[in-house]
Design goal:
This protein is an alpha/beta fold. Helix content is about 30%, strand content about 35%. It is found in: Membrane.
């Protein structure tokens, strides 16, 4: 009998772990969070869907303080429900914050563990208060437009970068790996408009890519883009798949990389009845030329957004890797070759 009582007492303590759980009806689940930075002060914007039996709408809540966690706690304190960021889908920061540096903000997000590391990270190309006002005014449903915009099975486009928070955290603490972050603003006839991608170096914005350059960035990184490219006015082709092979060498302290990009394409339309040989030749020349211009841009910015330094980690010591962006990347030579396979021509008949 005494043994059974002891077992009951132990089970009482073991099975009481849910005493502090809160019902979902008493929690606020933001879809997007905006973070604005100005002279050491943070302003936070939360996009919270509000769904009832009668209507679906969003609620935009903002507050400011000395740290991100402080502002979130203050918002939660003043609401009738607890703010739960575990299901947050998108984090937006303004351009001033990106140029100042994201190191402290990213470290706070990762260490708090209140926000999932896979949360999408975006830079807003306009003041955040104006952007969220536009989102609020344009919302006709449950306010998930910004979430759907970056979902690959919904509104994501191959001209847009896809950067989760954990990649930014990794790049800040890496000698040989930087990232690009998508940039958006309020749309004129649409809710959201893409304005390109930000080139990040050690967590700071140092340049910008156009949407067309972002497409090439995705192709080089092997992202299954399904993007479309105009070929010298003769045709429009769609990239079905891409892969890349790299061979690196270090010659007299000068890094060299020979890269071969394999593209499978589908011809969408043609103008002037060009041959497949001409389309492939012009596409290869176009991709090679545009990529070299893109590489020169990021090389000048000193940002290794392609992670090319990863190929030389076995050739360089750790002190040398620490100087990769300053001593080696500016002198790096890339020899790019593009090979194209036309998978099919759709419903078009073209000359061989």
């Amino acid at each position: 009998m005494m043994l059974m009582r002891m077992v009951a007492v132990v089970l009482l303590f073991l099975l009481s772990g849910c005493w502090d759980n809160k019902d979902i009806n008493h929690r606020s689940l933001p879809i997007a969070m905006g973070v604005s930075y100005n002279q050491g002060s943070y302003t936070i914007y939360l996009d919270i869907p509000s769904v009832t039996e009668d209507e679906e709408k969003i609620q935009i809540i903002s507050d400011h303080g000395d740290s991100i966690n402080e502002v979130i706690d203050h918002i939660s304190m003043n609401m009738e429900s607890q703010v739960d960021l575990l299901h947050l889908k998108v984090i937006l920061v303004d351009k001033a914050f990106a140029k100042h540096g994201l190191s402290e903000g990213i470290a706070s997000i990762i260490r708090s563990r209140y926000i999932a590391p896979k949360t999408m990270f975006v830079i807003c190309d306009e003041p955040l208060d104006h952007f969220f006002q536009h989102i609020d005014a344009s919302s006709t449903d449950d306010g998930t437009a910004i979430y759907d915009y970056f979902q690959k099975n919904a509104g994501w486009s191959p001209d847009i970068a896809y950067t989760p928070t954990w990649r930014i955290f990794r790049s800040i603490h890496s000698y040989t790996n930087d990232v690009v972050i998508p940039m958006i603003k309020s749309g004129d006839s649409t809710v959201i408009k893409s304005t390109g991608s930000a080139i990040m170096k050690n967590g700071k914005m140092v340049g910008k890519l156009t949407n067309e350059e972002t497409l090439l960035y995705n192709v080089f990184n092997g992202v299954n883009t399904q993007g479309k490219i105009e070929v010298m006015g003769h045709a429009t082709v769609q990239i079905v798949s891409s892969r890349i092979g790299n061979r690196s060498s270090l010659e007299q302290d000068q890094p060299r990389l020979r890269s071969t990009v394999h593209l499978k394409i589908t011809v969408m339309d043609t103008r002037g009845n060009p041959s497949m040989v001409l389309i492939k030749k012009e596409l290869q020349e176009l991709v090679t030329r545009e990529f070299m211009l893109l590489f020169q841009k990021v090389q000048k910015a000193g940002a290794d957004v392609f992670g090319l330094g990863q190929h030389f980690r076995d050739d360089l010591t750790r002190p040398q890797l620490a100087r990769w962006r300053t001593d080696y990347l500016p002198n790096m030579k890339v020899d790019l070759h593009v090979k194209t396979i036309v998978r099919n021509t759709g419903n078009l008949k073209a000359r061989k």
